[in-house]
User: Which sequence fits this backbone?
């Protein structure tokens, strides 16, 4: 499950939906530090790029094959209109697949220099602002 938590309200909604019981500020601080420590945006981006690069071409080829099967199975043989339709179907499949593969390459960051994740973190890697803790604690009645 992947959820973007951008504000404290988003976090509150998530905690309420998951029915997470937080009874103290220390538990809340520990929960937030765990969430922050386990979220890896680079990994999520890589997963999305791979999904686009695999799913789109595969589904396009399947749709083109099924359409070709029904097109050729419902006629008096191979006519000029059938050849034109097949050319249109498979060229569309090819164009969409190439665009998806290029997008996948760009999303996964192919041929890019070193990123910030390649460098070791400086100082304390995970901190939780006390104002945020107080606001969430008030909303959760901790």
Assistant:
């Amino acid at each position: 499950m992947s959820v973007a938590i951008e504000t404290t309200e988003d976090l509150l909604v998530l905690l309420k939906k998951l029915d997470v019981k937080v009874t103290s500020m220390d538990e809340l601080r520990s929960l937030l530090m765990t969430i922050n420590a386990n979220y890896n945006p680079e990994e999520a981006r890589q997963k999305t790029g791979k999904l686009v690069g695999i799913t789109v071409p595969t589904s396009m080829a399947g749709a083109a094959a099924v359409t070709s099967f029904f097109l050729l199975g419902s006629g008096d043989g191979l006519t000029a209109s059938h050849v034109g339709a097949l050319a249109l179907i498979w060229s569309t499949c090819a164009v969409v697949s190439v665009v998806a593969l290029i997008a996948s390459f760009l999303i996964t960051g192919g041929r890019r220099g070193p990123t910030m994740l390649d460098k070791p973190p400086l100082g304390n890697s995970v901190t939780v602002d006390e104002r945020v803790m107080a606001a969430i604690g008030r909303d959760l009645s901790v």
Q: What stands out?
A: The two ends are 26 Å apart (CA to CA). The mean pLDDT is 79.
